[in-house]
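Problem 12. The chain below contains 870 residues. Write out its predicted structure in token notation.
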Amino acid sequence: MSANEIRQIFLDFFSNKQHIIVPSAPMVVKNDPTLMFTNAGMNQFKEWFLGNTPPSHRRIADSQKCLRVSGKHNDLEEVGRDTYHHTMFEMLGNWSFGDYFKKEAISWAWELLVQVYRLDPERLYATVFEGSNKENLEADHDSLELWGAFLPREHILMGNRKDNFWEMGDTGPCGPCSEIHIDLRSDQERKQIDGASLVNNAHPLVIEIWNLVFIQYNRKTNGDLEPLPQKHVDTGMGLERLCMALQGKQSNYDTDVFQGMIQAIGNLCGKEYGVHHETDVAMRVIADHIRAISFSIADGQLPSNVKAGYVIRRILRRAVRYGYTFLSFEQPFLYKLVPTLVNEMGSAFPELNARQSLIQKVIEEEEHAFLRTLANGIRLLDSLMLTASDKKVIEGADAFMLCDTYGFPIDLTELLARERGFTIDSQAFEKELEKQKERSRNACTAEESDWVEIHPYKPTEFVGYDTTQCEAKILRYRCVKAKGKTMYQIVLNVTPFYAESGGQVGDSGSLIDPAGELIPIIDTKKENNLPIHLSETIPQNPEALFIARVDTDRRLAIAHNHTATHLLHYALRKILGNHIEQKGSLVSAESFRFDFSHYEKVDKEKLREVEHLVNRLIRQNIPCNEHRSIAIEKAQQMGAIALFGEKYGNMVRVVNFGDSTELCGGIHAVATGCIGYFKILTEGAIAAGVRRIEAVTGAAAEKIIDHIFDQLHEIRTIFNNNPNLPQAIRKMFQENDSLRQEMERALIERVQSLKEVIKSKSECINGINVMVLRDSFLPEVIRRVATALRSELTGTLFVAGYMADDKPALSVMVTDDLVAQGIHAGNIIRKAANLIQGGGGGQPFFATATGKDPNGLSLAVESIIQQATA
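Solution.
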């Protein structure tokens, strides 16, 4: 069976068990501050497990795209080195929300594995929770008894809390789990060592293939467990491992999931898989990583330097690094593998087909950028090696700087250093790395108390489309401490506050109690579809009936900007073409930005056309036509445009302004005329094939226009109100260019004259020609003199002790033959700089320093001469 057949059989099996088959959620997570990526099949159902919203179906199954590279599931450095770790993987899963429980989950798992997939039952083992005296939890006797109907007792193993008690996090839903393992060793090996002794012991051929989680408790902040009112089932089976078992392979990478990609990599680099260990590891790394990179971009996450984008960039650069180091790729190559991936997985995941061009362009540009980084890193490493040539040890702090600041991988630094007889202070590097990790941990550490229930919980009703004020009760609240601040998260039964989502920032405003006490709401967020109102205080009487009031001025500014993004999207498609797709946005009260697909800079004329069209639509005062809660199929028939990377339910909201029709849950102007005026501030690239426009509307646009006219008036005044201002400015630049050329000629003459004077006063000390300059000079003059002397002479030390901008300064030049003898200008000047209460450094042949104490200049010059001639 192929991987595609294995996936389809799973989905068909559970469809026949009355499960609704749902598509995979995007791999990139939104509206959940605890996750950047989907790392388990249950992530898209967290709001149901948490009870924030009722489940739309009681039984569900799917194949979910998952990514595990950071945080608790940090598998990145293992990927490619072993046969079963991956970054991106598929999790086959079936769920019950308050419907069936252990009996059905276990019997159906056995039926599918043994009767449908026809796995050898003698190779299967099941683990069951053994209980915990510490938490007063009994063993999972129900699962033990149920497995007894299918497996001999010696194949049912009791597992501890670490392996057989699943928890969503430090708090929240949890429960015992039962893992299914398979022994894929040869018959001879199985006779020699009992498979039961290898379960959960990191044996590459005795592996877990399915985990059945029985969610029946809620973990509170104090660690106590309380039974859930409804019991749920959450199962997950890795497709890659299942393929290994069904296809009779010894490695996930030997299955058809990866072999087509590995062959494509081999064809590109001219190397064969299975010949050399290092090239095999590199091919596995690349075959794995291209999937994670491509699916992330397809789901809307572009590589960047922050958060989820940084993770994707890190994965991409790891793949490039392995190709560069072990497969001799010196030009971009990853992007050439995308068609192979689309061919193999595009039928199951159509987003790959739809985004193939974008994926390839983004990857190719990222590869070019990283190859430039590698070239710069090698030059920096060469410089560090020159500095450390005596000890042959690269300092850990320097290696960390290369890695952290310049993106130069530590293992590549180690490899290049080793080739040239250098070592790296690994202990110091690890200390720097741990400091960085500690800083990151401190930055994201948050303490959350348990929810304080005020009224029985039910999903919050949002009324903000129709009103900015309503009566509301506090259902629950909790205290959150993070970054030295204490905040309160408040959940209301009814709210007019829009919670941040879809690129639109959250509302602010206040809660007002019957006595007139005002509780400021500073922001509104969404966590697992639960609207959270943030406040620095909690009401004295949280049981009261409150007036929830939105800051209407701020809300209107946000709404007008949001409507402007729709008009801008329409105008871009109208003028540049229908290939334009929205790739993201951020809408605030002050301004907005809009990201869109386009493969070249938008020229000034086209940008002005876009701006004029938007303003024309504003002047037409087109009313907002809203279709609230209609079937997504009907919305698609209306021609509604969906947002890139968003997950939509069966029922959606459509917002229409004339010919502009989009799926959107945000707040909008009642008519386009409310926007007033629209002005584009900037347009530029943020990634390959993705552009960004930043713009303002209304009062903010007026302010920008006023500022521009104020500047223009000031410039006119400077040029005596010249009627032809551009011509006057061009004339000024031409005159400046002439003056600059005259100054350059004068400077060259000055340097030549000064150089000859210095040479005439040369003194030989211990075989070295020492030339000294003392006075007040421009640093550029000193640098040019040093450069000229270095190019003409050998065996020469040039020292300048001078005043520049009323500060003492030092410059040292050492000719190349003296550098080869071990004289290092940068090292010499550091010690001498202490005498002028300053600091400095530089290259082996030229270095500079500045300080505070001019009285030490003479001593500093003498110190340099003594060090160099000793």
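Discussion. Residues 398 and 552 are 53 Å apart (CA to CA). Students who got a different answer should revisit the alignment rule from Section 12.3.
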